[in-house]
Design a protein that fits this description.
The complex is a heterotetramer, with two copies of chain A (about 210 residues) and two copies of chain B (about 325 residues). Chain A is mainly α. Chain A is built from eight helices and no strands. In chain A, helix 2 packs across helix 3, helix 3 packs antiparallel against helix 4 and helix 6 packs across helix 8. Chain B is an alpha/beta fold and about 325 residues long. In chain B, a hairpin with a 4-residue loop joins strand 1 and strand 2. In chain B, helix 2 crosses helix 3. Chain B is globular and about 55 Å long. The two termini of chain B are about 30 Å apart. Classes of the chains: A mainly alpha (about 210), B alpha/beta (about 325). Chains in contact: A-B, B-C, C-D. At the B-C interface, helix 1, helix 6, helix 7 and strand 11 of B face helix 1, helix 6, helix 7 and strand 11 of C. The complex binds adenosine-5'-diphosphate (2 copies) and magnesium ion (4 copies). One magnesium ion (MG) binds next to loops of chain D.
């Protein structure tokens, strides 16, 4: 798992003083504790990250992201190797955790407005395959090929970016921006943009690795 | 950025270290959890009081730790709520048999951190209650937000519950008083300039030379509207009206009037603002029973001020008058 | 200029009116002579204490009027000494059978006004003495000036003579104490930004974004030198060295350490500076016996700070510890 | 005596925030009390002005200018009509008063460095006449004609301006500027410049009136 650079990129967005210096610092802490986080399973690793974030990161981001990692861990707690379906389950669990912790939902102009559409898109793409995989008369037996990691990552990135852009005309109902009322309209939510940047970073890494 | 700062990451820690060095007999600094606590806490017979919230609002809240006010304050980074774990560790350190009251300014991050800490502490068997403070009238549209923000009026809640706790009141009674004071306290502030967080190094928002932000939040959140700089009298009138009309306060009320500086506005101007506000209240038949002028809850180096009113009754007046010993003093 | 101000000509008067409105039981405002005095002055058995000097340095000196400190303050316009006649009228109002001590920061205008007032008052049969305060080490070349300037160290003189007078000391004894405290008090300040006088409406001098003025005066007078902005630690080291080397203070000394804000620097930064100064003194074997952090003598909205040391002995320590009740308080 | 506009001009110099807002305010007060200052003699008038300044003007300027007017009054206390010699006596007395009050002297880079040279020049010009008036063999009997007011005013103005300009390379020993040490070198003393402006204004008025 080489997310270092993805985290580093996020820092550039996070460090603008609005989305939260503390989140950037939290990922810094995660990076510096990297060796201590080495774990026997992905779930254990995610739980350790969740703990570090909850313990050391403040602001709005600490509890939200801490909860997100904890729920993601829960979604894959028996798994040693993660597949695409596991990734979707993790993202879904993370989004539900953020909703619960933040008393927020789709449409409140938060990172959920990038995270949820991205998760939906991945899930749909994966669902296409088993459906198509049922042998249909006169069709190729294997249906569409199972989507590769690179393809999924690219899909996540484009969906998240489009969704983040689409937050611009929304009116914020949660987070600092909600205090501005009408004035929150016109610029995208920084949290949603951060999700897009992270997804794009993962997609770029995947390209390099394949 | 022109500030007294070494590495911006150390800004909060170095400030807390200075605070502890200046008050060696009364305060203890616990670097691991970024907290300041009374040297003599917890006490068997006193409810312990904790306040958190982001740094950058000093003297709130780390400089309000002491006899008659807080047992501890666990601030986060500049303008960021503390990690939930630090709040939890703070509660452990100050836990008294009479219980712990957490005072929280109403912001998403702070709410989440303190709620998580409350759950964790209660699992340990500590009796904890959490009181949210939300005196800022600038936020009007509560369907679209987590509700009003907690700002300078916070001081009155801390002072009153501090006095009640010192007198030996139990946790429910201390909570009742805090909630009562919060319910009759209203604040509205305005910015003349933006503030510059050390880690950002540049102003947090743009405010043209001829403009002010009416209803600004103490983290630089935008307020009700941006308008042209006008005479002190006209601007103070707008603040006073917003506050008075909100509760509302009315003729015959007796109030505490606080004019709070946001950090960059000198005390001379604050007294000038005080005089104007006092006279405007008199025009409305509202009598000032206690007055407070100075910095209570700032936004780093932001130039600007807020006006707070508290409707007084004998109980609140008495509690506000009780003695306290905190770092913010002159000798 | 972004300030809370109506007509700039009324800035001082409106500030004083606000001060009086905020302290109705303890202070009296006399608009004709631009003065603030204790409601209970003069007292038969107490030497009366008066301090003047320009406005714009608040809380010095109008907010230091009260039991245990000044009987009256008669400020001039912003950064200008009061007219001699106003000082004379002030002395008449506070004249006590035990005499009057005039405390004067050492500037040409203030010296002349207070000397003229002393002559006029003595012609009326009032016993008056005048004490000049000159703690600023920045001014080194006394052949070319009227000598050192009086700056934040002034607070310690006011506090000590205030306590002595309250205890019933006679005029000569009060004077002796004031002179003694002044003789062991040293200050040096620095500006991060220039201040903006309300009547001028623009910064009093130009200070580039990357520069600071070391040894700045509280009226924006240039200091020892202009240099680049550096880390807080490096700049505080320069202030502390200048102060320590001047008296000089040496290993084994016990001192009061004051970190004074010049108006625009938030209290969080002042505590950070305090911590650095405290540790630098410890390195030199100088022990801090009392600490003072906040705004004591400002220069309007100037960002910056000064460091003051007072060499303590038991007598001075005791006098500094005596209670006082002045408008600068939190509750 | 129509010094209103001269005072007004001074205001423009004085209002720069350095030479002293308070001095400008003092002259404003003098102007607003103009009727109450009406007097039977020049000395009485000057004394009243001195009193107003001492009472109401603070800063460095109040005591200095108050003393100057008071001493000027003393120099002409028995006179009903003032001549050129009286004017010189008044200026000389004012300069001596400022020296005493300010513990200052020529060369300290203050207004004295304009006031004293100006007074000296006037005195010299006046002294030339009686000397030249002694009938000398082969010379016109009346010597040089007595200098008129306009000529004297012009002489005062040019001398004061030259002297004020000449303060630029000096190092200040009195007033705020003295704290700057070496840095005071290079710009003229504001008080000296104010004297020059006042003298120029009087000269211009004289021209108009003659
Ligand atoms: N209640 C919430 N639920 C979900 N996401 C939230 C919530 N509040 C804030 N966020 C997300 O976190 C981001 C940062 O929030 P903000 O309030 O600006 O936090 P900070 O305290 O770090 O300034 C927002 O852009 C938004 O995407
Ligand atoms: N001691 C003095 N004697 C004579 N003139 C002085 C003295 N001090 C100041 N001045 C004159 O007054 C002017 C204004 O003085 P300054 O110290 O700048 O006063 P202010 O308090 O008004 O700023 C100077 O330019 C100088 O000409
Ligand atoms: Mg934010
Ligand atoms: Mg905060
Ligand atoms: Mg300030
Ligand atoms: Mg000057």
């Amino acid at each position: 798992m080489d997310n270092e650079r993805a985290f580093g990129d996020l820092d550039a967005v996070a460090g603008d003083g609005d989305f939260g210096y503390s989140l950037a610092r939290g990922f810094e802490i995660v990076l510096s504790d990297w060796d201590a986080l080495a774990s026997d399973s992905p779930a254990e690793f995610l739980k350790k990250v969740a703990l570090v974030i909850s313990k050391r990161v403040g602001g709005t981001s600490g509890p939200l992201w801490g909860t997100a990692f904890l729920r993601a861990a829960g979604a894959v707690k028996d798994r040693q190797e993660l597949n695409a379906a596991d990734a979707v389950a993790m993202l879904r669990a993370a989004a539900e955790g953020i909703k619960a912790r933040g008393k927020s939902d789709l449409g409140d102009k938060t990172l959920l407005d990038a995270l949820i559409p991205m998760t939906d898109a991945l899930e749909q793409r994966l669902e296409q395959r088993p459906a198509a995989a049922e042998p249909a008369v006169g069709e190729p037996a294997a249906g569409e090929p199972a989507p590769g990691g690179a393809e999924l990552a690219a899909l996540a990135a484009t969906t998240a970016r489009a969704a983040a852009d689409a937050t611009a005309p929304m009116r914020a109902r949660r987070g600092r921006q909600s205090y501005t009322g009408e004035r929150s309209i016109g610029s995208p939510d920084p949290g949603a943009v951060a999700i897009a940047v992270m997804a794009e970073r993962v997609a770029a890494e995947w390209d390099v690795r394949e | 950025m022109k500030k007294f700062v070494n590495d911006p990451k150390d800004y909060v820690a170095e400030m807390l270290e200075g605070l502890a060095l200046a008050n060696p007999d009364t305060l203890t600094y616990v670097p691991e959890y970024n907290l300041i606590m009374r040297a003599d806490t917890p006490q068997e017979n006193k409810v312990s009081l904790v306040q958190g919230s982001g740094s950058g609002h000093e003297p709130a809240h780390v400089m309000s730790v002491g006899k008659g006010m807080l047992d501890a304050a666990c601030p986060g980074d500049v303008f960021a709520a503390p990690p939930a774990d630090f709040v939890y560790e703070t509660v452990k350190l100050v836990a008294s048999p009479k219980g712990v009251l957490l005072l929280v300014n109403n912001y998403t991050g702070d709410r989440m951190a303190f709620e998580m800490a409350e759950e964790l502490s209660e699992a340990d068997g500590v009796t904890v209650r959490t009181l949210f403070i939300d005196d800022d009238v600038a936020v009007q549209d509560s369907t679209y937000t987590v509700g009003r923000r907690g700002v300078a009026g916070n001081f009155f809640v801390m002072k009153a519950v501090g006095a009640a706790a010192e007198r030996g009141a139990d946790l429910d009674e201390v909570y009742r008083i805090g909630e009562k004071v919060n319910s009759v306290t209203r604040t509205m502030g305005m910015a003349l300039t933006a503030c510059t967080p050390p880690a950002k190094g540049s102003p947090l928002f743009d405010l043209p030379d001829d403009s002010v932000e009416m209803g600004v939040g103490i983290h630089g959140e935008p307020g009700r509207k941006r308008e042209k700089l006008r005479s002190a009298d006209a601007m103070v009138r707008e603040l006073v009206s917003a506050v008075v009309d909100d509760l509302p306060f009315s003729s015959g009320d007796r109030v505490a009037l606080m004019v709070n500086g946001l950090g960059g506005t000198p005390i001379g101007e604050l007294y000038l603002v005080y005089g104007l506000a006092h006279k405007q209240l008199a025009e409305r038949g509202i009598e000032v029973g206690r007055s407070y002028v100075g910095e209570y809850c700032t936004s780093l180096d932001m130039a600007g001020a807020s006006v707070t009113l508290v409707r007084l009754d004998d109980e609140i007046h008495d509690l506000l008058t009780d003695p306290a010993e905190i770092p913010i003093r002159v000798f």
